[in-house]
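Z., the sequence and structure:
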Amino acid sequence: MKESSSEPWPVRCESMSRAIDYVKNCAEALYPMGMDTAQDWCVTLLAKAKDSAPIADFERQVKGEIAENAGSGQVSCILAPLPSGTIAETKRITFSIGDDSLSALQKSLNGLFSKSLDAVLHPASLHWSQYKLIVLDLDSTLVTCEGIDELAKMMGIGEKVAEITSSAMRGEIDFQQSFRKRVALLRGLEFERVLDFAKTVEVTAGATLLLRTLKSAGYKTAIATGGFDLIASRLQRELCIDDFCANTLEVADGRLTGEVKTTIIDGAGKAEFVSRLAKQQGIALSEVIVVGDGANDIPMMQLAGLSIAFHGKPKVQEAATCAVRNGGLDALLYILQLDGKEVSALTN
């Protein structure tokens, strides 16, 4: 699914304050911020297709796993669907569970995951009003592909480079070394073809809705990528993103030289960018959300108050606060306790 770009949306400050107050009141009624320790964890069920029988069966299985792993006091609620969202039906199950049983529950839930159904385990206290900045990885997170792999296909070496990329994203090899090796293999590629590719990269489904909603709620937004600035700068314009860090390919005589012009943005570089940006904006790191899929996202995830693995590698899912493995980026809104009613109030 390719999301169409849109003009910057108007923000009417007068009505925005009322909308935010309305959303906070709705959220507090559904999910009290003072929730006691008897209800301190949630599983949010995400169904891509509205099919009552499989969803009901999935919910029974999830509740069974919660009970099996010492969870108690289960309370379920149905969440209003997002407008034009990638998730057809969503439910939240709130319950009490001891810390020593969480890893066993997560392992059990992993076994229930399918292409159409997901169960996201996360603290019940998560709430969108606790955060002020969201930073997203680019490749395979904000966009649907790995940019360097797609450029390699133009050189007829797509599989070779994709294998190196996958290994780096799993954390098996050093990112800096792998990046230099992959960029060197692009030497000679016409820059015009790179520009054309950057214009056509597909935005991940749900990204526009996620960013539009959080911007309307007062968030700052940013991209932190070990990919290329040509793609990041385009997304910054189209999605009204506040800032980004990325790598710049060196060009000579209209072709890539196989080098980068700037210091390579690796995991440490992403973390440094997040730290610097938060400080510039006067935002505490505890008020930062980081979203990514690869091992080079872990350092910035470790800084943030909330980290979300989005279709992430196993190592990233283990490092993150929670993992969303199904649907588009709009699914993150449910984790932040924003359903269709609250999103409509913020964005209309």
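The chain has 15 helices and twelve strands. Confidence is low (pLDDT under 50) at residues 1-13, 29-39.

Let me know what you think.
H.
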